[in-house]
Amino acid sequence: MVIVLKPEATEQNVDHLIDRLRSLGMVTQITKGKERTIVAVLGDDRVLQGQPLSVFPGVESVTPILAPWKLVSREFQKHDSVIDVAGVKVGGSRIVIMAGPCAVEKLEITVGIAQEVARAGATILRGGAYKPRTSPYSFQGLGQEGLEFLAEARRQTGLPVVSEILDARDLGHFLEKADVIQVGARNMQNFELLKEVGAYDKPVLLKRGLSATIKELLLSAEYIMSRGNRNVMLCERGIRTFEPQYRNTLDLSAVPTLKEMTHLPVIVDPSHATGNWKLVAPMAKAAIAAGADGLLIEVHSNPECALCDGEESLKPSRFTELMNDLQKVAQAVGREL
Amino acid sequence: MVIVLKPEATEQNVDHLIDRLRSLGMVTQITKGKERTIVAVLGDDRVLQGQPLSVFPGVESVTPILAPWKLVSREFQKHDSVIDVAGVKVGGSRIVIMAGPCAVEKLEITVGIAQEVARAGATILRGGAYKPRTSPYSFQGLGQEGLEFLAEARRQTGLPVVSEILDARDLGHFLEKADVIQVGARNMQNFELLKEVGAYDKPVLLKRGLSATIKELLLSAEYIMSRGNRNVMLCERGIRTFEPQYRNTLDLSAVPTLKEMTHLPVIVDPSHATGNWKLVAPMAKAAIAAGADGLLIEVHSNPECALCDGEESLKPSRFTELMNDLQKVAQAVGREL
Amino acid sequence: MVIVLKPEATEQNVDHLIDRLRSLGMVTQITKGKERTIVAVLGDDRVLQGQPLSVFPGVESVTPILAPWKLVSREFQKHDSVIDVAGVKVGGSRIVIMAGPCAVEKLEITVGIAQEVARAGATILRGGAYKPRTSPYSFQGLGQEGLEFLAEARRQTGLPVVSEILDARDLGHFLEKADVIQVGARNMQNFELLKEVGAYDKPVLLKRGLSATIKELLLSAEYIMSRGNRNVMLCERGIRTFEPQYRNTLDLSAVPTLKEMTHLPVIVDPSHATGNWKLVAPMAKAAIAAGADGLLIEVHSNPECALCDGEESLKPSRFTELMNDLQKVAQAVGREL
Amino acid sequence: MVIVLKPEATEQNVDHLIDRLRSLGMVTQITKGKERTIVAVLGDDRVLQGQPLSVFPGVESVTPILAPWKLVSREFQKHDSVIDVAGVKVGGSRIVIMAGPCAVEKLEITVGIAQEVARAGATILRGGAYKPRTSPYSFQGLGQEGLEFLAEARRQTGLPVVSEILDARDLGHFLEKADVIQVGARNMQNFELLKEVGAYDKPVLLKRGLSATIKELLLSAEYIMSRGNRNVMLCERGIRTFEPQYRNTLDLSAVPTLKEMTHLPVIVDPSHATGNWKLVAPMAKAAIAAGADGLLIEVHSNPECALCDGEESLKPSRFTELMNDLQKVAQAVGREL
Questions:
Q1: Cα distance between residue D257 and residue D243, in whole Å
Q2: Rounded to whole angstroms, how far apart are CA atoms C307 and C146?
Q3: Any idea where the DAHP synthase ferredoxin-like domain is (chains A, B, C, D) (predicted)?
Q4: What is the pLDDT of residues A258-289, one digit of tens each?
Q5: How far is C-alpha B164 from the chain's CA centre?
Q6: String of b and e for C104-135 (b: at least 16 CB within 10 Å)?
């Protein structure tokens, strides 16, 4: 940590600050420049997180030096983490496509879509049983029954299943029925939930909150890993900006940035990010070109009648076409589907 | 709802759309202009929420006419709601100051701060027992013991208590110990939690998510009210913008806007919004001038050693001074503390 | 335009509004629903731009139906515009790479970089003679001399030149020396400048302002085209968001969105968007995968000593490598460099 | 400046960096911690602005210590600047209200509004002669004739005049006819214009760009002051955020923040910020409570027919009422109108 003092800081101010730092176990080194005095705090400055050093008299600014996380960091683990999802490897050279309906509706529709996406080459089935909906008057998901339908679709297609958890009390069902537990954007900082999914080794797909910084996303992953669960996948799904033309702004710069900062796999969800099926194909290709390890794509056999997010769902025929196109882009960047 | 058709929409497209709208129980009226055809959908268009009408062939745009909420609306209830918090009225002509430490730490500190803020004129005690912290390595709050300390401070000062809930499983403790249940910014769209606090009549302080729109805040309040709980207070606490100079950007335009759209009381939290004690006083005054019904202000007897958010906490002496200043501003806008 | 009236709107309110609309030459049709009355305004509602209809008594909301532009629209011209830049076609199947230094420094450096990027396959040379710098104490560019150096580099390499104009009074020099006039992000709404570059047929590269919406970008292009200049290229170069990890957030969803809304070519500048040379390669690939018609890339022979934006400049060797990679991605999406 | 090295930085990397810093005239001091090595660069690090030190091998991060400006800083001048606008003092204890129409339309309307706002207590007349309009099809202002009308209104009312300049070529007219030259939000980083208005001592009202940080605003003011003009007033007029409910989000935290960082007066424009006349009164009061030195308020005798921004204009009667209310708020915070 580097603390810069105000020009008018007194000797007393400096002593008071140094005393406090020492009482917290820190070693300090003072550099007096012509314009400012700098206090370098040596050692692991993570223990200073949350210390309100900026309110000490005479302090102008406080800059941490070390990242506030450990386990998620490339510094901690150099090689890429590869997560095993019921046999499907996420984070290796092969790009993983997770596809399926936004919300699980009926058994036969769910199984039908699962068969279609499997045929097209998807290797994981996505589907929402519990749905976080902005309005209390929108369809709220089938709940536990939806998880059953997904499990049945898995039995018939062999595709492992990813589904979103909304409430820690449902964790038992997810541990039993799902292969990947999705923690959605709205729950990225539901720290109790993070701690609980961190207590198992079931893979977790952690979505970036819609106004979460890269650092906050990594700290949320750190919550999960610090409880023991190393099977964490990160997911960029669009951030909130001033631009009203699409639902959110897909932040693809996050992909190479995360790949440099962390060893965890990075997935992209172009469907939720854009909220518009016409943008899914170009942004899916762009995500792979940017280095994503996988994609989440919404597919529905009848988008006009989908109970949730029909606007962004691809019909199976378009999805099949897209898979062909993605294969080409993957090869262009030295990977494959 | 108003649906605008593309210039190239065919008769078939129009018929297909009208059929769908009729099957959903809607009456439609078609207006053919020179440049575009407009379909006006009559009746309560709230039932169309979530219908992906924009993916129908030939549709250019879909604009709802009615707000997606009912119970929170001024249209539904013209007069201001006044919430009774253990005898303290929130939403009337008197402005309510809720003050106290960010996090509850020790019993004697908590009681001491409570006494100081009561003496200065605060009428509700705030304090965090469960703390949502960005990093897993930060102080996470005392939990249930913190609620006990707050209850003891209430016994000694008579101040009702507001505290934040993080997990629906703690609801029992909150119903017993707290006078107002705070749903924090990170949980504004934790819909399961909203539904559960909606099942009681205990007052709820619902904070705006840091990237939530006014509309989303109102829909989250609607979640609570639609379950029966009418005692909802809204709280503006800063939104996330590009400006790095303060923690968040306090959006005071939300105050008069909410007062026009809803009958619910509107509280402002200048401490969390700015993250800087120097900005608390000017922004507290500004909030009252803008029409806020109350303020949440962090006060700590020793900010340098606070375990959470010491940067933004006022010392009791400064808080007392601020209360005097706020009284003057309140009177200038025809209210009082 | 669709105008929705408040439930409490009186007959008088309606008559007053209709009178005003008629006096502006509009034909109206009124639809009375159970909840609201809707006034559909027929005809070209562009003439109503700027009319403050929302302040009329009884008006709840005003929604335009037609886009506020004409000439830039796909509705106006279905086929892609292809701009001829001294023989290089921009907007056709071939993707155009514009590369070179951020700022023009010395003649021999400029010519040297031009030769390197030409060798690697770039077809247009970029370089800043006039530099918009946030601080008055930063290098402000060589000005007119810089344009001379670029012209000399063009003579030696055959590459047409794109350079940014800051002041309409320099237009004569640009018309003479540059092949494309760049209007930078900070000048996207310098309407006087737009009008003046609109008076010639010299190609213009119009960069999106860092907080400009897609609609505002199109309206700025409309300014240029409405003065007669049809040779406009749009450029996405990152928008300002809350994320501090990169200089700006590259908004690649803008690429397919613009391609659908307008016939103009769309260029992407990954260098300025990210401000970090490590992100340039992945984002350049992603831009092409998303459908961009060209790229602007900063290349400098010695980034450590560049007078401007060395952080984001690629060395020539890395640029050559990137060109090979881009060729593969271009082919994967059915195009070529 | 503080430079932190990566854990894997070699001796060679350090030497290379130190050599470069020395060649730029800097003195350095190296502190080796257990986790990182820190290089403190002593002396005025403003000369390092624009040096791409972060691309040097082995460098992890670069943090400047000194603010990049001088003349605008409180460190440079402790006391508040008070600007004399034809006898009206801006920046002293008296709060200055600048009111008038968004756009100058006709002579008699302009004079009429000027008389009304003068009667209500405004001390400066605002009015736009040259109008920056998002669409080329909107009313673009009267230009030079508009300046004449304003000058005539000044003759009849004695109110000094503030008006916005769009093009440096009009500077002569402004020097002659206006008392304050407004540099609008869109031109906050039109550096050529800043330099030119900096060459005179005519007061300048510099508006914050709609996505400009506080630091960028101060740097733009530094541009003007570094050319010799000390008569600069800053203006907060709303920033662009994700919230669609108002035109922009008025950032009142900027007021006390700027007052701490700079000695220059701070004005607030609630009319443009909100774009909605109903929000003008509460936000005007809030601005004064937050410590603003003045307000810019749009007033129009017939908002329904205003050629520009009628939505946000107050009628003279409402403005008169507001002036009474503002007087009370000003007194509550120890000032007066």
A1: 23
A2: 13
A3: 1-66
A4: 999 999 999 999 999 999 999 999 999 999 99
A5: 12
A6: bbebebbbbbbbbbbebbbbbbbbbbbbbbbb
Of D52, D210, D303, the CB nearest to C310: D52
Among C55, C50, C81, C53, CA closest to C68: C50
Q: What is the pLDDT of residues C82-131, one digit of tens each?
A: 999 999 999 999 999 999 999 999 999 999 999 999 999 999 999 999 99
CA pair distance D302, D304, nearest whole angstrom: 6
Q: Which residues pair with A232 in a beta bridge?
A: A204
pLDDT in tens, C145-158: 999 999 999 999 99
* 3-state secondary structure labels for all residues of D120-161: HCCCEEECECCCCCCCCCCCCCCCHHHHHHHHHHHHHHCCCE
Residue A224 has pLDDT above 90, yes or no: yes
Instruction: Return the structure tokens found at D134.
Output: 């998002």
Task: Report the gap between the CA of C259 and the closest CA in chain A (Å).
Answer: 11
Cβ(D220)–Cβ(D206) under 8 Å?
yes
Contacts of D35 in chain A (CB under 8 A): 43-44, 65-66
Beta strands in D68-133 (DSSP E): 83-85, 88-90, 96-100, 124-126
- CA B244 to CA A208: how far, in whole Å? 20
CA pair distance D169, B52, nearest whole angstrom: 52
φ/ψ (deg, to 5) at B209: -60, 155
Kind plus residue range of the DSSP H or E element containing C217: helix C214-226
Whether D50 shows a pLDDT value over 80: the answer reads: no
Q: Is the pLDDT of residue B47 over 80?
A: no
Instruction: Give strand pairing partners of A164.
Output: A182
Judge whether D26 and D46 are in contact, CB under 8 Å. no
Q: How confident is the model at residue A88 (pLDDT cuts 50, 70, 90)?
A: very high
Give the containing element (helix H, strand E) for C162.
strand C161-165
Task: Specify the DSSP class assigned to residue A94.
Answer: B
CB of B63 within 8 Å of a chain D CB? The answer is no
Residues present in chain C in total: 337
Chain C CA closest to residue D219: C135
The CA–CA distances, whole Å, from C92 to C79, C287, C327, C337 equal 11, 16, 16, 11
Please tell me which chains touch C, using 3 or more CB pairs under 8 Å as the contact test.
A, B, D
How far is the CA of C328 from the CAs of A289, C281, C334, in angstroms? 11, 13, 10
The pLDDT mean for chain C works out to 95
Q: How far apart are CA C292 and CA C236, in angstroms?
A: 9
**D267 touching C, CB under 8 A?**
no
Q: How confident is the model at residue A138 (pLDDT cuts 50, 70, 90)?
A: confident
Q: Is the pLDDT of residue A43 over 80?
A: no
Phi, psi of C99 (to 5 degrees): -135, 160
Strand ordering across the sheet containing D59-63: D27-32, D37-42, D2-5, D59-63
Residue A271 in 3-state DSSP? helix
Whole-angstrom Cα distance, residue A139 to residue B328?
49
Pairing mode, strands A37-42 and A2-5:
antiparallel
D146 CB-contact burial (10 Å; exposed 0-12 / middle 13-18 / buried 19+)? buried
What's the pLDDT at D318? 97
Q: How confident is residue A107, by pLDDT bands cut at 50, 70 and 90?
A: very high
What percentage of chain B carries pLDDT values higher than 70? Answer: 100
Sign of the Cα pseudo-torsion (D56, D58, D63, D64, in order): negative
Burial class (CB in 10 A: 0-12, 13-18, 19+), B284: buried
B329/D325 touch (CB, cutoff 8 Å), yes or no: no
